[in-house]
Amino acid sequence: MATIHDVAKAAGVSAMTVSNVLNDRPHVRAETREKVLRAIAELDYRVNPAARRLRSSRTGTIGLAVPDIAQPYFGVLASHVVEAAGRRGLRVTVEQTSAARDRELEAVALSRRLMIDGLILSALGVSVDDLRAIDYPLVLVGEKDLADELPQVSMPNEEGARAAVAHLLATGSRRIAVLGGIVEDGGMASERLAGYRRAHGDAGLVPDPALAVPAERYGIEGGATAAAELLRRGAPFDGVFCMTDAVALGALHALIGAGLRVPEDVQLVGFDDVPAARYANPAISTVSPDHEFIAETAVVLLERRIAGEQLPAPRRTVSPFSLALRGTTRRA
Questions:
Q1: Does the structure show a pLDDT above 80 at 27?
Q2: 3-state class (DSSP) for residue 178
Q3: What are the transmembrane regions (predicted)?
Q4: Which three-class secondary structure state does DSSP give residue 181?
Q5: CB burial readout 85-121, b (16+ within 10 A) else e
Q6: Distant-in-sequence contacts of 105-114, Cβ < 8 A, 24+ apart
Q7: Are 181 and 196 in contact (CB under 8 A)?
Q8: Mind listing the pLDDT tens digit for each residue in 88-108?
Q9: How high is the pLDDT of residue 282?
C-alpha cells in the first residue's frame, strides 16, 4: 500500500506538501496540486483514517443516548443518525437512558471515559444546571426547553399537532379525543397538547376534558389501554389525535376490536410517521417530520461542537413536516 512518502517522491514534493493538498489548504500552487493529485491517482494512495484520527486526538466515534430504543421513533432516529454519521466517516454508539436524569448524566460520563468525540442526547431528565456543568461536546434532540444552553434539534410538535387536528376538523370530526396528552411536562406532550388546543380554538371550539386520556410511555400497549379507557368513559367522540404513532397503533387495535369503523365512525391520526404506521390496516394518517433532517442537522452541529465552534443563538432548530394522509382519516 502506498504511503504519503511514496506520493511525495512520485510528485517530486515534500510529504508536508502532500499533506497540504490532502487537507485542501489554499496556499499550494495549482500546478503542484495537480502533480500531487496525479501521483495519488497513479499510486492508488488512500488516507489512513485511524492515523488521521490519532493525530487529531479524535476517535471518529460519536454517541447517541435516547430514552427507549424499543420505541419506534427512537429506532428511526438512531437509524438516520448512523446513516448521517457514516457519510462523514463516523461511527455511532447507542445508549438507553430510560429518560432518567442519572442515566442521562451517566451517558455523558461514559462517552467521555470511552473517548467518544461527542454525544447526541435526547434530554428529558437533566436540568439546565446539569448542562451548564458539562464541559463536553453535546447536541440535544427532543423538546424539553433547556433555555438555548446547547444546540438542539426538535420536532415540529405544536404546529404538527395543530395541522393534524385541523385536518380532523376539516373532514367532519367535532369531538376529538387526545390520547397521551394531559401531562404538562414542558416538553413534547405539552407542545402537542398546545397544538391540539390551538386547532380547536381556530375553529371556535373548546375540547371536552373528558376526551383527554393519558397513555403509558406513549407506546402501543399504552395506546390500547388509553383507547379502552376512552370507550369506558362513554363520552361521545368522532376523532382521535394520538401523541405518537405507537399510541395510534394501540388505539387503532382497540377501536376496531370494539366494533368501530375507522375512519367511517371515528377518524384517527398519529405523530412521527414511523414505518409501522404505513403497514397498519388501515394505514395510519400521521404528522411526518423530516427524520433525515433531524439526524443530519444533529450530526453536523455535533461535528461543529467537536471542532470547538461556538454556535450562535438561537440554537434550537425545528424540523419541517408534512401530513401523511392515509386510511384512518377521510379526505377533505
A1: no
A2: strand
A3: none
A4: coil
A5: beeeebebebbebebeeebbbebbebbbeeebbbbbb
A6: 105/130, 107/63, 107/65, 108/65, 108/134, 108/136, 108/138, 111/63, 111/65, 111/136, 112/136, 114/61
A7: yes
A8: 999 999 999 998 999 999 999
A9: 98
Mention the CATH class of domain 60-155+291-321: alpha beta
Average pLDDT over residues 133-140: 91
CATH 1.10.260.40-classified regions of the chain = 4-47
pTM of the predicted structure, to 2 decimals: 0.80
Q: Tell me: the pLDDT tens digits for 302-321?
A: 999 998 887 776 678 999 99
Residue 226: Cβ within 10 Å count: 28
- Please, which residues have CB within 8 angstroms of residue 246's CB and are 6 or more apart in sequence? 71, 72, 73, 218, 219, 220, 222, 223, 272, 274, 276
| Residue ranges of the chain that CATH labels 3.40.50.2300 | 60-155+291-321, 157-288
Q: pLDDT, tens digit, for every residue of 205-256?
A: 999 999 999 988 889 999 999 999 999 999 999 999 999 999 999 999 999 9
What integer pLDDT is reported at residue 14 of this predicted model?
87
Q: Which CATH architecture has domain 4-47?
A: Orthogonal Bundle (1.10)
| Domain 157-288 superfamily per CATH | Response regulator (3.40.50.2300)
> Measured on CA atoms in the order 311, 93, 154, 68, is the torsion positive or negative?
negative
